[in-house]
From TrEMBL:
Keywords: Glycosidase, Hydrolase
Record-linked PANTHER family: BETA-GALACTOSIDASE (PTHR42732), HYDROLASE (PTHR42732:SF3)
Domain (Glycoside hydrolase family 2 immunoglobulin-like beta-sandwich) ranges: 183-289
Family: Belongs to the glycosyl hydrolase 2 family.
Protein name stated in the entry: Glycoside hydrolase family 2
Amino acid sequence: MTTKAYIKDYPRPQFVRKEWLDLNGQWDFCFDDERIGETEQWFKQFPEGQKIIVPFTYETKASGIGIETFHPQVWYRRSVVIPQEVAAKRTILHFQGVDYKAKCWVNGVLAGEHEGAYAAFSFDITPYIKYGAENNLVLEVQDSQSCTQPRGKQRWVEQNFECFYVQSTGIWKSVWIEHVNEARIEAVKMTPDIDRHMIRFDFQLKGIEDKKNLRLEAAIELKGQPVRTVSLSADRSWITVEVNVLHEAGGPWKQSLWSPESPNLYDVQFVLYEGEQERDRVSSYFGMRKISIENGQILLNNAPLYQRLILDQGYWPDSHLTPPSEEALIEDIDKTAEMGYNGLRKHMKLEDPRFLYWCDVKGMLVWSEMAATFEFNDDAVSRFTREWLEIVPQQYNHPSIITWVPFNESWGIPTIAHDVRQQQFTQGIYHLTKAIDPYRPVVTNDGWEHTVSDILTLHDYVEKGAEFLERYQDKESIVNNQISFNQWKRAFAEGYAYRGQPIIISEFGGIAFQTDKGWGYGNQVDSEEAFIERFRAITGAIKATPYLAGYCYTQLTDVQQEVNGLLTEDRQPKVPLEVIREINLA
């Protein structure tokens, strides 16, 4: 169950080139609490310090350091030999995620800067390379405890509290190098249209200005069988083409759709030629699937979709936000499916591309959610918007992602219920997201106090199924803001009204066993039987409410002091997984 071009641990599995170098592993490392590194030119003469294992942050045991105290500035250094035989190519240094503000030097020369913890970025370091010799890569990372930077569940004080955990500072996703030709495929945006049996490719090319006789080729396969090959002139930087994915006459394959039950993926090779000479080759894949809303229903491939989701925060005990391995990502997806869930809400985190790859391969639905700020001002608006507009295009091609969630529970927009500026901010993000991706639903404030939103999502941690049924029997009083549906918040912000959207209970449950070492939602239970009884009652009540289109249970695993997972932090089941599955599928 992999795509044709799959390479284990390749950091960007939906845009694969064979020529790459993994830079994860041991780096030199220094704290810089006094912020003297630039003044003293550590990028030229790195001080004696300690070692760190990248991509794990210094706060984690997996990094080899394991200091949880916040440090505002850290430095990394490692050397790498760039072989002479790639001197005619461009050398691109990729960072999949660095928290929060990065500056990179190569052989003492500034190569680039980036701000934002969750978006991937890269620098063309070709001008600074010494070929056939060692090259020094130095990275300065600045972080803060500011609540105007998107930080998600990372604490901004010295100790964990409520549902906020140890911060992450520095490199926390893979670092790698690839060598590419001057003329190359920079990106491809892939948009399926199942009703017309078409896939649209929007190509972004780079370095083609002085080239002649350039030609693009896209060769599509399904299950090892050729589907169609198209060729077109590459005479400009942005090119769009639509391709019919029905197999040509006489072939054995028709259109195969992507769904949780049948996660069919088409392999595709993108090749850029200059004359007959190959200049670039990228391997990728896509899924033919459609997510839509009609008459108050969510549809997948034009059929009603009932979503059984689980909240997934993506934390591990020794590596925090960074997965300890690709196998760990696969394990989480497999256990989610084993419990009868058909999807997950990735909460307050933009996950590793390898996770989304395996969701694509295994048919796991994903809600992709932005990490929140916790203050509202011009700086927070600017930071949030800039990073979100990087993230949406980076994740756009994954068929598993079916919903965008830029905001959650009024975090970063605390007075949205009546504050027109905050309401307009969410509207702006909604429409900017739709400008990039008009094909997926957008939830602007998951949980309550919605403005413009494609789905009405409600958070309610009521413990008893009977109480839930009583509370939700009168749909109109909830959707028309006549009552506080969870005895705390109302469904819509002032000035906004229900427009017939599908309704999902997108947080509930949070059951925890009796313990003095952490917390869950509501009363803790003292036995497996009590856990199952409560889980069965509340899940059954939601499923018995006819106007609901699905649910999202809190949560997959324990996370630090929050001990309300169906699994422990080290992924051990607290109750038999087959029991959870039976309840979900009943």
